[in-house]
Design the sequence.
C-alpha cells in the first residue's frame, strides 16, 4: 500500500504518536480499560502492510493498533474505537482489542491469544477459492506460538498451500513471562520446517528488512507456492499492558532495546538518503497534529447508549 | 412426495444449497472421499469437486476457525465436527469468535457459518461419544442451535441454517439416520429457524421433547391415549432461540407440562423450559412442571448404561400419569 520511503516513515510515526498519546490518556485516567501498547514494534506492522493491497486480508490480535493503521484504517474512527466511543469504527463496541474494516480487508483484532491464526487461514482459504491472487496475513506474538491453534494453522496452511503469511512478532515476553522460559527452542521460525512451511527470521526493528521479507512471502503466496512464517525479532517497550510493573525484566534491558528504536533508525536512514531535516521535522509536526486531532475527536465523542448492548446479537 | 431417510435429507439439503449458491462449501474430517463418517455427505465430492468439499486434518479448532475466517471473507461455510463431544476442542472459535463477530464489529461482518455436528446419545459408545451438549452451546448469545428429530425437519432446517446469516450449530442424531419420511420435492422447501412444531395435538398434558425424545414422547402419547389422557407433543426443533410462545400457548391450554430431554437436568434444557413456563404460565399450572432427564453422571461404555440412564417411553408414560393424578 505505502510505497515511497517517506510514507513508510509517516506510517511508523503515526503509530508511535498514537501509542504515546494513548499512554498519556491512560496516565491521566482518561482511558477506559487496558492499553496493550505497540511502542517499539512499529516497523513490524508497517514493513508487512506496506506490501499489501486493500483486497488482501489481515487478522490482528490484542496488540493491534499498529496493524490497523498500517493497513490504512482511518485515524479518527480508530482512535474513537479505542476509547469505546460511538464514533468508533465499530461504534465503540469492540474497544481496545477489537477493530475492523471490511473494505480494507482488516478482519478484526482479538481478545484471545492465538485465536486469529485459524481465522487468517480461513480468509486465506476464501482468497484461494476466489483465485484472484489475494493473500491473508495473520499477526501474532511469540506467546501465541505455544497455543494449539499455531500447529493446526501451520499444518493445514502447508497441506493446502494456502496464501497465508504468518507474522510472528517475537517481542520476547509472552504476557508477563519471558518467552525463553516457556520453550525449548526460542526461534519460533524453527518450528515451521517440521510443518513444511517456509520461514525467515527477520530483524523486526528494521522496517526495510521486514518489508523485503514480506515481499518475498507475499510473492510466494500470490503465485500459489503456499504459506510463509516470518519471525520478526523485536521488543515491546511497555509492559503487557500499561501499568504492568515489568518485574520480569530489567530497566537496563529496556534501555538497550530503546536504543535500537525502529522509528529513529529509519529516520537516520532517510537522513543518510539525503532527506532534509526540515522535511522530516514538518512531517513529524503534521503527524503529531493529526493524532492530537484524533484524540480530541475521540474524547469529545459520546459513548454509545447502554441499551445499544442489546442490538446486533444476530444479523 | 419422495420418501427420504434422515441421512439423505441432510445430504439433499447440502447438495441443493451448494448448487444454489457457489459461496457454500463443506469441510470437515472425512467428509469428502469417505462421504462422511456417518455417510452424511455422500456424493458431494463428485458433485462439487475437491475445492468445495474438503477433507480436513483432525484439527477441530481450525475446522471451525477457518469457517469463521472464510465467512468473514464472504463465503458461507458448512463445517462438520464429527461428534458434539468434540466441541470442547473448538469452543473458543464457536463461543468467542463465530458467536460474537457480528456483534463486536457492529454488524460489519455477517457470520453465515453452519457447524454440523452429531449426537450419539444412547448408542453405547462411551463417555466421549454420548453426550447431549445442546444446552451448553445454547447458553451462548449469538449462536442458533438447531436439533431436528425427523427427516423432513432435518432437510428444511438445514437449508434454512445454510441461508441464515448467523452461526448455527446443527445437531444431527446418528441413531435417527435411517428413519424415513416423505419430504416435499421443492428446492425452496424451508422450515424457519426458531419455530417449534406441534407434533401431536392434545388437551391434557403438554410434553416438550427434543431430538431423540420426540419419537419416544409420541409413543408414550399413543399409549396413554387409550387411558383417555390427551397429550400434546411439542418439538422445539430450534433449541436457541427457543419458541416459548408456542410452548406457553400449549401449557396455558393443558395446564400441565413435562419436559423430556437427553440433556442433564442440572442447568439444562428442561430447566430452562420449566423456569420460563413458571414465569409465563404460573397461574395456568395445575401441577409443577416436571423434567425427565438423564441423571447428573457421565455415560459409561455399553448400551445397558445408556438405557438405564435415559428416559424411555415408559418413564414418559409414568410421568404423564403422575401429572394427571
Sequence:
Amino acid at each position: 500500500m505505502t510505497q515511497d520511503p517517506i510514507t513508510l516513515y509517516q506510517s511508523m510515526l503515526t503509530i508511535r504518536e498514537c501509542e504515546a498519546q494513548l499512554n498519556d490518556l491512560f496516565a491521566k485516567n482518561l482511558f477506559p480499560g487496558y492499553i496493550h501498547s505497540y511502542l517499539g514494534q512499529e516497523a513490524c506492522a508497517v514493513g508487512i502492510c506496506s506490501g499489501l493491497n486493500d483486497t488482501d486480508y489481515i487478522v490482528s490480535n490484542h496488540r493491534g493498533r499498529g496493524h490497523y493503521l498500517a493497513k490504512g484504517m482511518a485515524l479518527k474512527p480508530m482512535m474513537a474505537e479505542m476509547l469505546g466511543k460511538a464514533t468508533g469504527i465499530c461504534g465503540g463496541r469492540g474497544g481496545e482489542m477489537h477493530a475492523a474494516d471490511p473494505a480494507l480487508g482488516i478482519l478484526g483484532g482479538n481478545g484471545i491469544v492465538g485465536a486469529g491464526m485459524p481465522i487468517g487461514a480461513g480468509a486465506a482459504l476464501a482468497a484461494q477459492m476466489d483465485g484472484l491472487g489475494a493473500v491473508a496475513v495473520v499477526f501474532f506474538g511469540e506467546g501465541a506460538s505455544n497455543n494449539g491453534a499455531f500447529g493446526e494453522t501451520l499444518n493445514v496452511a502447508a497441506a493446502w498451500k494456502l496464501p497465508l503469511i504468518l507474522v510472528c512478532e517475537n517481542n520476547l515476553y509472552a504476557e508477563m513471562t519471558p518467552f525463553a522460559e516457556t520453550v525449548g527452542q526460542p526461534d519460533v521460525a524453527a518450528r515451521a520446517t517440521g510443518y513444511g512451511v517456509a520461514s525467515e527470521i527477520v530483524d523486526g526493528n528494521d522496517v526495510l528488512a521486514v518489508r523485503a521479507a514480506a515481499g518475498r512471502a507475499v510473492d510466494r503466496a500470490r503465485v500459489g507456492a503456499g504459506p510463509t512464517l516470518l519471525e520478526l525479532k523485536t521488543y515491546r517497550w511497555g509492559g503487557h499492558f500499561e501499568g504492568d510493573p515489568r518485574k520480569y525484566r530489567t530497566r537496563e534491558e529496556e534501555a538497550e532495546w530503546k536504543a535500537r528504536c525502529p522509528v529513529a533508525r529509519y529516520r537516520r536512514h532517510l537522513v543518510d538518503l539525503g532527506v532534509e531535516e526540515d522535511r522530516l521535522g514538518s512531517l513529524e509536526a503534521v503527524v503529531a497534529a493529526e493524532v492530537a486531532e484524533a484524540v480530541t475527536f475521540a474524547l469529545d465523542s459520546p459513548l454509545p447508549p447502554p441499551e445499544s448492548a442489546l442490538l446486533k446479537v444476530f444479523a | 412426495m419422495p420418501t427420504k431417510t434422515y441421512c439423505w435429507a441432510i445430504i439433499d439439503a447440502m447438495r441443493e444449497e451448494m448448487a444454489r449458491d457457489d459461496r457454500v462449501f463443506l469441510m470437515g474430517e472425512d467428509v469428502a472421499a469417505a462421504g462422511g463418517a456417518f455417510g452424511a455427505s455422500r456424493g458431494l465430492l463428485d458433485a462439487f469437486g475437491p475445492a468445495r468439499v474438503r477433507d480436513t486434518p483432525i484439527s477441530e479448532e481450525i475446522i471451525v476457525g477457518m469457517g469463521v475466517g472464510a465467512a468473514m471473507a464472504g463465503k458461507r461455510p458448512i463445517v462438520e465436527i464429527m461428534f458434539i463431544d468434540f466441541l470442547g476442542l473448538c469452543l473458543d472459535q464457536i463461543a468467542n469468535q463465530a458467536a460474537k463477530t457480528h456483534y463486536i464489529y457492529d454488524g460489519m461482518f455477517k457470520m453465515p457459518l453452519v457447524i454440523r455436528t452429531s449426537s450419539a446419545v444412547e448408542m453405547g459408545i462411551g463417555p466421549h461419544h454420548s453426550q447431549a451438549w445442546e444446552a451448553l452451546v445454547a447458553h451462548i448469545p449469538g449462536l442458533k442451535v438447531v436439533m431436528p428429530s425427523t427427516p423432513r425437519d432435518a432437510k428444511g432446517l438445514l437449508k434454512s441454517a445454510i441461508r441464515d446469516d448467523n452461526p448455527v450449530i446443527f445437531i444431527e442424531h446418528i441413531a435417527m439416520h435411517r428413519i424415513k419420511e416423505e419430504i416435499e420435492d421443492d428446492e425452496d422447501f424451508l422450515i424457519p429457524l426458531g419455530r417449534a412444531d406441534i407434533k401431536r395435538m392434545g388437551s391434557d398434558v403438554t410434553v416438550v421433547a427434543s431430538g431423540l425424545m420426540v419419537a419416544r414422547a409420541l409413543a408414550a402419547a399413543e399409549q396413554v391415549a387409550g387411558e383417555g389422557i390427551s397429550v400434546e407433543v411439542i418439538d422445539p426443533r430450534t433449541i436457541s432461540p427457543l419458541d416459548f410462545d408456542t410452548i406457553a400457548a400449549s401449557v396455558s391450554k393443558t395446564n400441565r407440562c413435562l419436559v423430556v430431554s437427553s440433556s442433564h437436568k442440572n442447568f439444562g434444557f428442561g430447566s430452562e423450559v420449566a423456569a420460563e413456563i413458571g414465569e409465563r404460565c404460573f397461574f395456568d399450572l395445575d401441577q409443577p412442571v416436571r423434567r425427565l432427564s438423564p441423571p447428573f453422571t457421565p455415560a459409561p461404555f455399553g448400551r445397558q448404561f445408556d438405557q438405564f440412564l435415559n428416559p424411555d417411553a415408559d418413564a414418559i408414560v409414568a410421568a404423564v400419569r403422575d401429572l394427571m393424578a
In short: Chain A touches chain B at residues 57, 59, 89-91, 93-94, 98, 100-102, 107-108, 110-112, 115, 117-127, 129, 136, 148-149, 152-153, 155-156, 159-160, 312-315 (CB under 8 Å). The mean pLDDT of chain A is 96. Chain A is about 45% helix and 10% strand. Strands of chain A lie at 57-59, 136-141, 164-170, 173-174, 177-178, 198-203, 228-233.
